[in-house]
Amino acid sequence: MEANDIKAIVTGGASGLGEGTVREIVKAGGKAAIFDMNEARGQEIAAELGDAAIFCKVDVTSEEDVNAGLDAATAAFGGINSVVNCAGIAVGQKITGKDGPHPLDKYRKVLDINVVGTFNVMRLAVVRMEQNDPGEDGARGAVVNTASVAAFDGQKGQAAYSASKGAIVASNLPIARDLARSGIRINTIAPGLFMTPMAAGLGDEMVEELSQDIVFPKRFGKPSEYGRLAVFMLTHPYINGETVRLDGAIRLP
Ligand SMILES: NC(=O)c1ccc[n+]([C@@H]2O[C@H](COP(=O)([O-])OP(=O)(O)OC[C@H]3O[C@@H](n4cnc5c(N)ncnc54)[C@H](O)[C@@H]3O)[C@@H](O)[C@H]2O)c1
Questions:
Q1: pTM here?
Q2: Contact between 130 and 184 (Cβ < 8 Å)
Q3: Domain-embedded: residue 75
Q4: Mutate which of 37, 84, 116 to test ligand 1's pocket (most atoms within 8 Å of Cβ)?
């Protein structure tokens, strides 16, 4: 698939890494459907990008929402061949603390959005992508998921978040195997520290301090840099079943 053939679903596309991906796809000549809960921002981005983007109000954990969004994207673009899953949430909570044990509902919510939501969008999108006419080597499309370096070197308070991102990494290879017969590739990006609304809340001082741990370049990643790797993974015909750390070589202590 060439970049200008991309017809993608981008979850979490109304902010941060997802927005960066939508913009990179459109810059490369492709089309993107923003699946997000943030309607105001999603509509704004879609309006700015014109015919190359649409917004669909989707909760990634809902089968009904995802199917309605897929119908809208298929109608707008004449089909879909790519999925980039960026929707996700982070919580900070230790397994025990002054208020007692880690609340189970908080743990379940992170797993529900980050793992079940990612899987829900994938399963409903790829079943449609399997109907695409095969291209070279029988290729019918590609998926990119978002993990985190927290899947490998999680910090205090990241039990739930790290578990959710570990699940994304662990399911990458089995899903690549499941989808081989359909000609659909799947890869995962494990970002380090990126400057998104999620990170902006940290404050300048904390950003400066954390940047010192990044090997090179000593700064947070840009959403466009995430988007560039996502476009590469969607279009490179031989990268499959891979997880790539995109982190300036940071190894969190
Ligand atoms: N920013 C970082 O440094 C960083 C590092 C590692 C991994 N990540 C991961 O990258 C992904 C994107 O992070 P970000 O920093 O861009 O976050 P962000 O908060 O800027 O954007 C996340 C988007 O997901 C949407 N969203 C949340 N729950 C949703 C749901 N149920 N259905 C649909 N949309 C939903 C939000 O509305 C928001 O627009 C997340 O999975 C995050 O865990 C981020």
A1: 0.98
A2: yes
A3: yes
A4: 37
- Write the DSSP assignment of 196-233 as a string of letters: SHHHHTT-HHHHHHHHTT-SSS-SPBPHHHHHHHHHHH
Residue that has been written with the tokens 């309607």 in this structure = 39
Dist. CA 222 → ligand 1 center (Å): 14
Residue 96 lies in a domain: yes
| pLDDT tens by residue, the chain, 253 residues | 999 999 999 999 999 999 999 999 999 999 999 999 999 999 999 999 999 999 999 999 999 999 999 999 999 999 999 999 999 999 999 999 999 999 999 999 999 999 999 999 999 999 999 999 999 999 999 999 999 999 999 999 999 999 999 999 999 999 999 999 999 999 999 999 999 988 877 778 888 888 999 999 999 999 999 999 999 999 999 999 999 999 999 998 8
Residues acting as catalytic residues: 161
- Answer whether 42's CB lies under 8 Å from 9's CB: no
Please state the domain count of the chain.
Answer: 1
Q: Is residue 23 part of a domain?
A: yes
> Does a structural domain hold residue 209?
no
Q: Whose C-alpha lies nearest to ligand 1, atom 12?
A: 86
Q: Cβ < 6 Å from ligand 1: which residues?
A: 11-12, 14-18, 36-38, 58-61, 86-90, 113, 117, 146, 148, 191, 193-194, 196-199
125 is in which domain, residue-wise? 3-193+222-246
Q: From the CA of 55, how far away is ligand 1's center (Å)?
A: 16
* Minimal-distance CA residue to ligand 1 atom 23: 12
At how many degrees (to 10) do helices 39-49 and 16-27 cross? 10
CATH number at residue 154: 3.40.50.720
> Tokens 């790290």 map to which residue?
162
